[in-house]
């Protein structure tokens, strides 16, 4: 597949074995895997630093929640994140996740999963959950589970740290402020000149349609917009990523239990506000103690950039109910956007030996990207 925006006489910017377009977590994971497989790598990123979905998320490496193929990718990714912690000083916490249950139907989902995966899921009492929440947590909590394999990374710093580390490696270069425009089979064309590359791997997330609209349309890749906020913490150290009932309906390992049907019916009837914004109510703590809270989901080819105050308030209210507090003090609000497809959780398309496209299309890029990259560049 070629792109028509080619300027054959543009200057030569660089040369490499593998050119990666995009420095989000998908691109960076592929760059690391290509380097480890012995290739000379160039990353081009149109912005002056990573600012896409990869820095706007919860930083939850949600290993336990995945099933099937995604569980395999997540398991590989988990090991790679730990390796990157040692190699590149990326902040990775082996804190696990905690699923907080406030109803018997939520506990039933967790119990069923624990039966099939006893090593991955540890059922906890209310007091044990509160201990994991650093003493925080409302009286409505009836118990829950520790999801032991989950990791937490700091999303604000992880991608930038990996990019800086990559730029310092022999055999790797990173060009910020450089947009990938297309390839003619031997050279990639960028906004700063051509790059001689044997292989190009396009990892531009939800902006795939700007480059390859037919591919995006054929795979039903659209944009999913999510509302997030940063709030002051409750004064407790909350090490794990914290999931609630709506998360149990979103991630396959929970959602595929037979107990999930009753939970879904109850949430649909009792919490139309959460259903209406397609909520996954959860939070993680940043190193400064503040909480990343979210989120809602709205999928369209082109999404409105406007944040809905009612949506933020619905999420805020639900998180207050989990923490047992009246209000949380807001410090930031933002919209995150990721690639989404109803067809498949990720897109891996290869066009001959020269051009590949990789995009995580299910909102789990922090969880599976390193596994996906390992498949693209086995070593
Ligand atoms: C609010 C929110 C919460 C989430 N929470 C989680 C979570 O807790 N756990 C989890 O596993 N996943 C989570 N996700 C999903 C995860 O963040 C994404 O799946 C992942 O970040 C996608 O990575 P990416 O590299 O494809 O995209 P991005 O991070 O968006 O990176 C794409 C990059 O490509 C660049 N680019 C685009 N076009 C060009 C071009 N032509 N040339 C050069 N560069 C280009 C962009 O500037 C950008 O830097 C969340 C997502 C959001 C939005």
From TrEMBL:
Xref: Pfam families: DAO
Organism: Tsukamurella soli
The family this protein is said to belong to: Belongs to the DadA oxidoreductase family.
Origin: domain of life: Bacteria
Cofactors (names): FAD
Keyword Flavoprotein: yes
FAD dependent oxidoreductase domain: residues covered: 17-374
Keywords: Flavoprotein, Oxidoreductase
Keyword check for Flavoprotein: yes
Protein's recorded name: TIGR03364 family FAD-dependent oxidoreductase
């Amino acid at each position: 597949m070629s792109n028509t925006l080619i300027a054959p006489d543009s200057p030569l910017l660089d040369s490499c074995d593998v050119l990666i377009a995009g420095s989000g977590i998908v691109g960076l994971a592929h760059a690391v895997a290509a380097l480890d497989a012995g290739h000379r790598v160039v990353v081009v990123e149109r912005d002056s630093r990573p600012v896409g979905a990869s820095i706007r998320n919860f930083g939850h490496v949600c290993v336990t929640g995945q099933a099937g193929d995604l569980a395999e990718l997540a398991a590989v990714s988990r090991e790679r994140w730990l390796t990157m912690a040692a190699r590149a000083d990326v902040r990775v916490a082996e804190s696990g996740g905690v699923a907080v249950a406030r109803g018997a139907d939520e506990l039933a989902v967790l119990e069923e999963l624990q039966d099939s995966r006893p090593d991955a899921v540890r059922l906890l009492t209310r007091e044990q959950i509160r201990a994991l929440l650093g003493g925080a947590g409302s009286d409505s909590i009836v118990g829950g589970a520790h999801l032991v394999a989950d990791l937490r990374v700091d999303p604000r710093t992880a991608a930038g740290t990996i990019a800086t580390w990559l730029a310092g490696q022999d055999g790797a270069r990173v060009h910020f402020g450089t947009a990938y425009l297309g390839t003619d089979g031997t050279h990639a064309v960028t906004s700063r000149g051509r790059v001689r590359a044997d292989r190009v791997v396009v990892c531009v997330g939800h902006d795939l349609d700007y480059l390859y609209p037919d591919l995006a349309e054929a795979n039903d890749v659209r944009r999913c917009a999510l509302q997030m906020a940063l709030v002051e913490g409750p004064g407790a150290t909350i090490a794990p990523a914290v999931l609630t009932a709506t998360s149990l309906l979103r991630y396959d390992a929970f959602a595929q239990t037979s107990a999930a049907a009753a939970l879904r019916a109850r949430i649909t009837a009792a919490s139309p506000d959460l259903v209406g914004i397609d909520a996954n109510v959860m939070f993680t703590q940043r190193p400064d103690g503040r909480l990343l809270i979210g989120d809602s989901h709205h999928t369209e080819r082109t999404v409105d950039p406007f944040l809905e105050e009612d949506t933020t308030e619905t999420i805020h209210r639900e998180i207050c109910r989990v923490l047992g507090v009246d209000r949380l003090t807001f410090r930031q609000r933002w919209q995150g956007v990721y690639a989404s497809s109803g067809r498949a959780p990720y897109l891996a398309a290869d066009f001959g030996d020269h051009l590949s496209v990789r995009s995580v299309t299910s909102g789990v890029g922090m969880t599976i990207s390193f596994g996906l990259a390992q498949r693209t560049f086995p070593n």
